[in-house]
Design a protein that fits this description.
- The protein has eight helices and twelve strands.
- Strand 11 and strand 12 form a beta hairpin.
- The protein has a four-stranded antiparallel beta sheet with strand order 1-2-5-6. It has a two-stranded antiparallel sheet with strand order 3-4. The chain has a two-stranded antiparallel ribbon with strand order 7-8.
- With about 240 residues, the chain is of the alpha+beta class.
- It folds into three domains: about 80 residues, no CATH class; about 90 residues, no CATH class; about 40 residues, no CATH class.
Length: about 240
């Protein structure tokens, strides 16, 4: 840290919490703001308060992932400050962590988030294909430029009428994706959706599941599906 331009002032917040069955540790750098308060005697006096609305820098560490999966490179994510990488450099030195890059893992998680989004939105087949094409075209373009995929930019391309819809879906479901993620071409090339709808039946699945969880028998024109979603099996059992 000797060569770093360290931040001065502010407060460091450590928060250890559990979400579901996962333990997290958040380390955040907070600054304070000057303001005023009105006392019980109606006097206006200066007041200092923590500016929790503007996180200048923070890191979230997935303790469960770090402890139980030694090969993981995705146990830490950063919120970067206005000065970007220069600030995060000394901050990562301070907490003793490096933000790993797992291109295949990040790409798979993004594609899973997209599949969940399409399913939750219950989109018509044509609309789902258009959004899939938008994702693949953007990812391919960024790969040619040697640039990561920006989730906010991708969200706007997927749905121009609701440019924040996909981005909000990712944040609300907490997939653990960074605002920018690297692309793994091989993982992307495996991504393709087969969809079909007829007489009250709707089927949609990713191409890489064919031959694994899904088998197609051309002679009988039938599909065998293994590992059904729990929500679906619960409905079938109740029926």
């Amino acid at each position: 840290m000797e060569e770093s331009n360290l931040s001065t002032g502010g407060h460091v917040l450590f928060a250890h919490y559990q979400q579901g069955m996962t333990d997290y540790l958040t380390v955040a750098l907070l600054h304070h703001s000057e303001g005023v308060v009105v006392t019980d005697d109606l006097d206006v006096t200066p007041s200092r308060h923590l500016d929790v609305g503007q996180l200048h820098l923070a890191a979230r560490i997935n303790l469960s992932e770090w402890q139980n999966n030694k090969q993981s490179k995705q146990y830490i994510s950063y919120i970067k400050g206005k000065n970007g990488k220069k600030i995060s450099g000394y901050f990562s030195d301070f907490i003793g962590c490096m933000e790993g890059v797992d291109g295949p893992g990040e790409t798979r998680t993004l594609l899973k988030a997209f599949s969940d989004f399409v399913e939750n939105e219950d989109l018509p087949d044509e609309s789902a294909r258009e959004k899939t094409k938008a994702l693949v075209d953007y990812a391919t373009s960024q790969a040619k430029l040697g640039e990561p995929m920006g989730l906010e930019e991708l969200s706007g391309l997927i749905d121009e009428d609701r440019p924040k819809a996909f981005y909000d879906h990712i944040r609300n479901k907490d997939y653990g994706l960074s605002p920018e993620i690297p692309l793994d071409k091989r993982t992307l090339n495996q991504f393709r959706r087969f969809t079909g709808r007829a007489e009250g039946l709707s089927i949609s699945f990713e191409a890489h599941l064919l031959g694994d969880k899904i088998e197609y028998d051309e002679a009988s024109n039938s599909l065998v599906i293994k590992g059904l979603p729990t929500q679906l099996t619960d409905q079938l059992k109740r029926r």
